[in-house]
Bacterial bifunctional deaminase-reductase C-terminal domain-containing protein (Streptomyces roseolilacinus), 265 residues
Amino acid sequence: MTDQTPPVPAGPAAPAAVGEGREWSLDELAEAYAYPAAGAPHGAWLRANMVSSLDGAAQHDGRSEPISSAADMRIFGTLRALADVVVVGAETVRLEGYRPARAREAFAARRAAAGQGPAPAIAVVSASLDLDFSLPLFTSPLVPTLVLTGAAAPPDRVREAERAGAEVVVAGDGPGVEPGRAVEALAGRGLTRQLTEGGPRLLGQFVAAGVLDELCLTVSPTLTAGDAQRIAGGPAVAVPSRFALASVLEEDGFLFTRYRRTAPV
């Protein structure tokens, strides 16, 4: 993996470039993707991690794995290990077969020094709570799974989620979740280092609400054609959000880019 970062002052710098063929250590990746010490004006730092093919597909046959790589998965694991909470949409939980986040010995000391628990919490965003609460994600996580929903969520599903051991967090006055309130509700629980892994609809909501601070985008050297979703879906924003390139890493033709909002809200 090599460092292709342009010479611009945009947050913590990526580690110095390493030679072709050498795999970056997890410590080097953790330094490259460290959360900013100052956070963001809204009390948390929300970053997204997504992968896209060269022709803009975020998935192939409904899953991201076919356009991913071993290096992409190392970065995926590093980003999780740095986060307090991983925010994910219900449909992605169903399609990708989400399991609880696990503790990783390689990051134990770093998490302890940052005042974090052994693993990030998973926060599932769902209006209907149409989820299988018998899955390990809800029944046997290392850290209790959160379910973000609206005040008008079906009461019977709320009770079932709570019986399974999940903590239900209301972040909206109607049936659905309001993105800004979700960020605030998680920050209010001390979960300020936030990571979303999508899917596209959820990421689109965060973009439209203006609360996304950083995008970690893997550009996969693949072409898929078809009609797969982009990394963000939903209604278009009135004015495109401008982000600045913070770093670029490369391995086997995959580009691991990191962009930060140029003018945080």
